[in-house]
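Appendix B, example 12.
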Amino acid sequence: MEQRTVAGLFTRVFGPPPHAGAPSVVLVHGLGLSGRYFAPLARRLAANGVTVLVPDLPGSARSRVCVRRMPDVVRTAEALARWHGQLVRGPSLVVANSVGCQVAAALAARHPGLAHRLVLLGPALTPGVSAWRHGVRLLADAWREPPALIGLAAADYLLTGPVRFAVSLRHALRDAAMAFESHLARVDVPTLVVRGAGDTVVSAAWARRATRLLPDGRAVEMTDAAHAAHYSTPDAVAELIEKSTTGADA
């Protein structure tokens, strides 16, 4: 793995370097976290010769100093578009988790040439659900995740800081209420929506609705996973991603 800072964003690069002619995958993390919890999936994808790019989003974790104020979802997507333009020629496969799915949807809707396919893992936040209810759901999900992930997430939350986390949550709630659904409806590339059967953050009903909103959406439920399926079952998620790019049945 190589580490570098590109367009102000701390970036992990797995597999061949960008511009080497290999297909590229971008992994977009969730609220207040870093790209570290994508490492198992990134290594698995890179083992097949894919360039995997994992940024810390602006204001989060090791990219916290690149902005003075936490950007909203659209501004985060714009920063990600600038970052992508400096790293990759042509579109990438974009894989996102949780609130990162809101960023990915905004990116694909506003910059249709940057993604040729999306994979949304546990697309949060759910429109119409309060911050309190989301918090309760997240705490319930924590008991279903690997203990190592809880420690990693706690360290990332501390690095990002409580104030920035709270501001990011407010931005994400506003985006969920006002823009998330419209962004999904404007995504014009094939999109796979993945939900862990044990996910208490994203309901089955919302996952189905998100899939219906997408012009070319398909849904998969994973039986042995919760909200962070990419961390607990990276091989299975990688297989889903690889099948989605070849058109094979998952």
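The longest strand covers residues 115-121. Residues 162-178 form the longest helix (17 residues).
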